[in-house]
Amino acid sequence: MSSRSNALRYYVLSRLMLAPLMIWTITTVVFLLMRATPGDPVDALLGPRAPIEAKEALRSQLGLDKSLFLQYLDYLGHLLRFDLGSSIASQGQTVWQIIGDHFPATVELTICGLAVAAIVGITVGSVAASRPNTPIDAGGRLFGILTYATPMYWFGMILQLVFAVQLRWFPIGTRFPLAQTPPDGPTGLYLLDSLLHGNLSQFGTSIYHLALPSLTLGILISGVFERMVRVNLKQTLRADYVEAARARGIPEFRIITVHALKNALIPVITILGLTFASLLGGTVLTEVTFSWPGLANRFFEAISQRDYEVVQGLMTFFGTIVALVSIAIDILNAYVDPRIRY
Amino acid sequence: MLVQLLGRRLRPLRALGYYIGLFSLCLVFAVACGGGADQETSTPAASNGRVTMGTTLSARTLDPADAYEIFPGILLYNLGDRLYTYAPGTTTLEPQLATEMPTISDDGLTYTIPLREGVMLHDGSAFNAEVMAFSIQRFMDNGGRPAFLLSEKIDTVEATGEYELTVSLQQPFAAFTSLLTFWGVTPVPPDTYTIGEAQFKPEEFVGSGPYKLASFSSDVIKLDANPDYWGDVPENKGIDIQIFTSPANLYNTFQSGGLDVAYQTLDPDQIAALERDADRGGWTVIEAGSTVVNYMSLNQKIAPFDDLNVRKAVAAMIDRNLLNDRAFQGQAEPLYSLIPKSFEVHEPVFEQAYGDGDYGKAKEFLEEAGITEANPLEFEIWYPTSSTTRSVVANTLKEAIESNLPGLVNVQVSTAESATLWENVEKGIYPSVLANWYPDYFDPDNFVQPFLSCNEGSEETLCEKGATQGNGSFYYSAKTNDLLTKQSAELDESVRSDLFQDLQQAMVEDVPYIPLWQNKDYVFSASGVGGVAIEPNQQFLLWQISK
Q: What is the ipTM of this complex?
C-alpha cells in the first residue's frame, strides 16, 4: 500500500473524527443562544395571561425549572437519541416530522437553484475568461458583482412582477396549485415523485411552480461560480499544456471546453458543496419571498412564534448538515486533487 | 499525465454536467410546453365549486381550547357552532346550538340553556348537553390561552338534562351570553378530545359546523363542506386557503388572478392600489369597520407620565387625522374612546376634552406641568419591531409634535422585539407604548375591563397585579374598579349604558391610555365570486361565499 493511500486514509479518518466535535460545538452554541434569547417558552405556549400555577406546572413538565447545566445534560441526552424535540406551538408535532414535511421542498429548491447557478455561472465565467480584457470580460465581472450584491427579496419581487404579474408566465410562488393534488410520496420531492409515478402533468406543474424561485436563487448565487470559473480558467489558459494544444492547432473552443475547463472546475467543487449545504438552511429569503413551504420558511415561522424547541432543533439540524457536507467536501477535494497536503 | 489523471478523476463531474444539461433541457421543455400556466393564472379557482382564498395570517392551532388568534378564530367559527351567534350582518344575538336565549336566575348567577336536538358532530356522534358541558369544562381546564375567558367567570357547568345545560357563574356577568359566542366555546367529542393541562390537538378539529377540516398545514388549509350539516348547507363545496409569507405575495397573486378571495393582511398602499384598479381588474372591494382598537399606553409609575398634566398634554397633541392620512392612506378611523364606534355607548370623549392635534391646549397643560423651553418634556414612544404601521405612526407623531412644539417637547422613538417589548411593558420599563386590542367578544365590557381593571394595588402604589399592569399603564382607581364591577353585573341595559359613560369619563380624566385609531377591514373578491362579507363582529362567514 502506497504512502499516499495511507495518508489519504489518515486524512479521511481525522476529518470524520472531527465531525462529532464540530456537531457538539454547534449544538452547545445553539443551546446557549436559545437560553440567551428573550421571551419565555411557557408564555409562548400558554399565553401571558395563564394562571401562575399552570405556568409552573408546564415549566416543570418541560424541564425548564431545572438548572441550566441539567437542562443542557437533558438536551444532550435527547440529541444522543436523535430526539430534536417537538413543537411547543403546535404540540405533538416533532421536529423530525417538521423536517420530513418541509425539507423536501427546500432540497428541491436548492438542487434546482444550484443547477441554474452552475449553468449560468460556468457559462458566463467561461465566456468571460476566454475573452480576457475585453468588454465581454468586463461584462462577466459586472455580472458577478451585481448578482452578488443584489438583495434576494428585491430580485425575487422584480421577477414576480415581470414574469408573474405582468406577463403571467409563471405563478407567484407556492409549490403546487391550491386546487390540485400534489404528487403523493415517496420522497416528497415533487419532480422526482411525479416521474416515479409517471405523471408528466404533475412534473410539468411542479417545475412550472419551481421556475421563478429557482431562477431567483440560481441567478443570484451564480456570481460566485462565475467568479471562480473566470479566475481559474484564466490561469489555466496560460498553462503550458494549453499553449501546446494551441500550437498543435486545436480550436480554441475545444481547448476551453475539453482541456482547460476541467481543471478550472476543481475549486468549484468546494464552492458547490458548501453552497449546497448553506442553502439547505439559508434559502429563507427565497422561500419567504415566494411563499415556498420549505424548511427555512418553517424555521422563520418558528422564530416568529417563539417556538423554541423547533428553532433549536432546526438550528442543530442545519448546523449538522453544514458540518457534514464541509467534511465530505474536504475528503472529496483530497481525493480529486492530489496536490492537497494532509 | 496530470491532465489524464484529472480526466479520470473528473468523470463524476462530466456526469454532473450531463445531468445539468439534461435537467435544463427538461426545464425548458416543461416550461415551454406548460400549457397549464395560462389555465392556472387566468382561471385559478376553476375547481368545481371550491373557493380559493389567500391570507398572510397564520394558524398556530385549531384546538378550540387554545386558539386565541384572529385567523384560527375565523376557521373555528366556520368549522364549529356555538351556543349563540350573531344574525348575519347584524349585532343581534340569536341561538345557534341553543334553541332559545338563556333563562337567567334573578341573582344573575345561573344560566339555563335549552339545546338543539338532532345535531351530529363531524365524527358522526350526537351532540347533547353532556358534550357541551365537556367542551366548556375542557376549555377552562386545559389551560389554553383563552381559558381565562370562561374560567374567571364560570363556577360550574353541567348537563341538567339531555338537551339542557346549566351554567353557574362566580359572580353576575352581563356580557356572558355574548361571551358564549366566542369561537372556542364550541362542542367537541369527548371520544376524541381529553381534559388535562395543555392537552391540545392543534392540527385536528372535530366539531359540528358547516365545514369539516380536510387538511391543515402551515401553508395550506382545506375545508370541505359538511354534507350532513344540520343548518343551511354552504354555498360552496369547500374552501382552499393558501397562507402567504408576505403581503406582497398575496397582493401579486390576487392581482394576477390566482385567488378568489384575498383577506388580511395587505399593506395600505396595496389596498389603495386594489381599490383604484377594481374596475379594470374586475374585482370587488369589501370594506368594513372593525372593532380592533389602537392606543398609546402611558405608564403612570414613571416620569414623565406620572404627571397627569403631561398625560393630558400628550392627549391634546395627538393629531389622529394626520396619522390616518400618513400611515393609513385614510384606511383607518380616528378613535376618541377605547370603546369603538360600533357600540351605541361609544362617546368621543377625548375629542370633546382635548380636541385633535390641539397644540395650544397642549401648551396649557405643559405649562401647568412646569414644562418650559429650559425644561422641555422628553419622552419615549415604544413599539414592537415587527409592526411597520406603528413605526410610521410613532415617527409621524414625533415629527408632528416636535415641529408644532419646537423646543418644548422632544420625542424619542424606540423599538424592541415583540417578546422583549411586552415583557418590559409589564415590568413598567417603558414610559409609553403603541399597542392594539383585538376583542374576544362583542360587548363594550371587553373594551373597559382589560384596560381599566386592577385586582391588587392602591392609588398610591398604583396597580401591582391586574390588567392595567399587563397593558403598561399601571392605572389604579378604586372608583373605576367599582364602576367596572357594577357594569359587569348590571343586567339593565340603560343603567349599564350610563355606567359605560362614567367609565369613559374616568378614562378621559385620568388618561391612562390615549385612543388613536380604529382599524378598517378589507376583503377582495374576484369576478364571479359572491357573498363575501365581513360581519360586524369581525367574523368572516365562509359558507356564504358562492362562485
A: 0.79
